[in-house]
Design a protein that fits this description.
This protein is mostly helical. It has a domain at 22-86. Helix content is 54%, strand content 3%. It has three helices and two strands; from the N terminus they run E-E-H-H-H. It has a two-stranded antiparallel ribbon. The longest helix has 34 residues, at 50-83. The two termini are 35 Å apart.
Amino acid sequence: MTISRQPIQYKGDELDPARGPGLGCFRFQLAVLVVLVILTPLTVVWGWPTWVSTVLLFAVILLLLVTGQTIIFLLRLVAADRRTRRRPLASGTKTVGELDDDAQAITPPLPTDAQDPPSDEGPVRQ
């Protein structure tokens, strides 16, 4: 069984788990979010000034956005990590990565004289 150890690409660069928010940051965001979600309606019940309730409401919305982006980033890291691991033991079929590796092993590389010369143009953006 061949395991592909190629780096996971994200926007043209390798996906670096050390770069970006971690699990501790995410837990902190969730704790603050829970406190604000509970506190915001209570400010109305307690009769606090309207501007305080408004600021807390906008803070909840902003924190929901940030927390959502953090969870997406962390899920991408987990998916990238799992992609490099072996297939499940109960699986009788090959994974997509194993099929790609087999296809590359079967297809012989072109001789160097048969390849087109490199183009002066940069990569085409699609």
